Structures are given as structure tokens and as C-alpha cells.
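input
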Amino acid sequence: MTGESTGPEHRPHRVVVLALDGLLPFELGIPHRIFGRPRDAQGRPLYEVVTCSVRPPGPVETDADFAVHVPHGPDALATADTVIVPASYELGPVYEEGVLTEELAAALAHIRPGTRLASICTGVYVLAAAGYLDGRPATTHWIDAGRFQRVFPRVRVDADVLFIDDGDVLTSAGVAAGIDLCLHMVRRDHGTAVANEVARRTVVPPHRDGGQAQYIHRPVPDPQLATTAAARAWALGRLHEPIQLRGMAEQESMSVRTFTRRFREEVGVSPGQWLTQQRVERARHLLESTDLSVDQVARDAGFGTAQSMRQHLQTALGVTPTAYRRTFRVGSAVQFPPPGPLAHRPSSAYGSSHNPDENRLLVTAVTERDG
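output
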């Protein structure tokens, strides 16, 4: 597509951020920073971000020594393609008992069926109290995960990940994980190249390895012995080759058992899961930025065969390599998400995954030893 076509395909995707009393200013700013950056090939914004309150326009108290003026009331939620709920320290009965206040319930009633929903940190309490997370996976800050599970026993809480993408509902861990989540949504909507450009302009990594496990305070080995960074760099330099767990361990002069344990401590996932994530990311980059055949992309990303890569991308992204390339190929026309429900994706490879192959270090082969 080249021309001057007009119509709904050029309407920016509307992100409405719900500002609640006691909000954290940093988290309130994350969606505006991340979604305010992406542009299409003609320089037009891909997203429109607005902030609303559960009350008519006016001040909303923060957890700092200032309030923010919110220009929209709860009716703005009815215009949203995506609603994001940042954390708040004054959720009252939502936090204490898991029930919505009348004011909050009335505000959420404006949300159209099929709207994509997301939370940052304890904003997940609002989604859970509204019933959006019943029987579904979700995450929140690791400090609060146990309490959240007790208040909402029907939610499948995973405290080890930075965020969870369950299709039309996404949840993230504390504070900076909100950046990870918003970048992931940009990546999901418009591809790796767009998300990477936003990350560069924001001076943050496009995505972080592992999950919250790496941030939980606990005894750790001697720092001089614990690092596995050299092994990860070594593996990234040869993703196209068969990589064995023993080979990675040898880069750090560790036994397989010790290396596997320390890798989990530092990265938050097993070496096999991490390697699969990196190969999926490599495949995405090649599909977006090159004309290589699917077979060649599979070989260069280390999957060996197109069928193996197809299975891994289907699990991680919910689409085939050909469909992914058609949507996100650099230089192709930007496809604007339609109003209402977005295409369902299974839990992301960057958060949680149900792929049994992720416990294998090699797609072609070597089963990871019990570490």
C-alpha cells in the first residue's frame, strides 16, 4: 500500500490509562512514554494515549507530594481499544477484600466487551476484583504475589515472570516491568523493529531476560563465581549452531549442575528456555528485516528445520512464520488493529510459555540434565 487511503485503518489505536487515587507517578507515565513514540511510515502516531479518572475531570492524588490534573472522566473508557491500570497505594476494599467500590465499578462498566486490558504491578487487583482474571494466569510484584493469590484464589498467579500475555488481558510485575509489558504490546501490535526503536529512544533494553526470580532477595553464591554472562554471550554468537548445555557450562568452568542452578538464579529461567527465547527473537528479526526463505531463517536462528521453527513461533507468538512476516515485514504497510478484540496470543515466550520443548537446550536434541 502506498497511497492516500483514508478510513479506519489509519485511526490510531486508543490507549486509555485509568488514574486512581494513590497512583505512582512513574507508572502513570510509562504508557504515555512507550505508546506515545511509535509512528508509521508517514510519521503518523500509531497510538493515541489519554488519561481518565473514575470521577469527572480534575485532580487525582498520587503517592508523592503532588496531585495530577486528569482531563477525562470515566466515559473515556468507552472509547478505549486498550485500557491500562497502573498501580495505586489507595485501592481500599479492592486491595483489602477484593471487591470494587461503587465508583470504580461504575467506571469500569464503560469498557466495551473485547477491549484489551492491562495492569502494571498492583493495578492487577482492579482487574481481578472486576472478574476479568477468573481462571486465568496473572502476575504482580513478587512481594505482593502471595497476598494477591489469597485474596483472589481463582486467579492462576505466577510470581516468577515479568509479565503475562493472555491475549486480551495482560498483567505485569512491579514498576519497571510495566515498561517491559508496554514494549511487548507495541511489539505484538507492530513488530520488533517498531518496538526496538521505541526502546532505543527510551534508553531501555527491548526486552529483559528471565523473570522476577532474579530480583527476589535470597542468599546467592560468591559474585565472582556466580556470573553466567560469558556463557550467554558465547551462545548468542552461535545461535545458528547446535549448542549443548555442557558447552555453555564449560565457558564458565562450571559443572552442568552448578551452571544450571546459577543460570536460573541470575536469569530466572532455565538455559533451555532462555535459548529458545533468543532463537525466537532472532527468527523474528530475520523474518522482519530480510528476504531469506523460511527454511534459511530456521537454520540461521538455530531451529534446524522450518517445521521446528513453525512450532516454536506458533507457541510463542500464536502465528506461523509466514503470517508473522506478512504482518511485520519492514517496509510493508502498517496494519492498524481494529477496534474491539485484538488477535489472541498465547502466553508470551518472554513471560510464561507452555511449550514442552523449552526444557530442551537444543531443538534438535540435547535434553537438559536435571540440575
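quick obs: Confidence is low (pLDDT under 50) at residues 1-7, 217-225, 332-371.
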